[in-house]
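Onboarding guide, step 5: your first structure request.
Type a short instruction followed by the sequence, for example:

Predict the 3D structure of this protein.
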Amino acid sequence: MATVYEIVQGIAQAAANAYDGSHVEGYSADEKSREVGLKREEGDPIIDSRVMDGFKVKFHGDKLVVLYHSEITLKEFHARNFEDDIESTFNDIAKFLKKEYKNITKNTLTLTPEGDADIHAQSMSRKRNWIQATKTYKIGGLGDVEPVKGGSPEDRLDDAMKKWLALGGEGAKKPQNVSIKG
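The system replies with structure tokens like these:
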């Protein structure tokens, strides 16, 4: 059984192996081709026009959050299967992470998706747009890690503001140098 540190380290190394150019054998240090399923993998990374897309991972308790970024055209954005394409990209990324994790650690990785992807599309100009999407996965085998508790950051901020505002008012203790009655 792997420790939490070993699992996190293996996932981080698997994500690091998806650098731009890793899909070409000649550009990787170990001469292995690694295809993730991203748009940037079409063509040569040095010679051809580049499509900007990529992903990174972050850990939140016993969850893995995959963040995906890509440039898109308006035609791609308005396509009927736009959300399905993004979900398919997340599936390709999860498949790549599992495969690379197995190659690195010789253990299997279980990633269980939690809900749909959260997709935000923004415009840079009339021709250029980009998307930022996130998807959360539950990491299997992290028995020692407690899930992150508490409400949202807004809830915690609201509670702190209410406590701070309650310090003032009618029943608040006055400083010693206040001589006004009433």
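Each response can be followed by summary notes, for example: Residues 34 and 132 are 23 Å apart (CA to CA).
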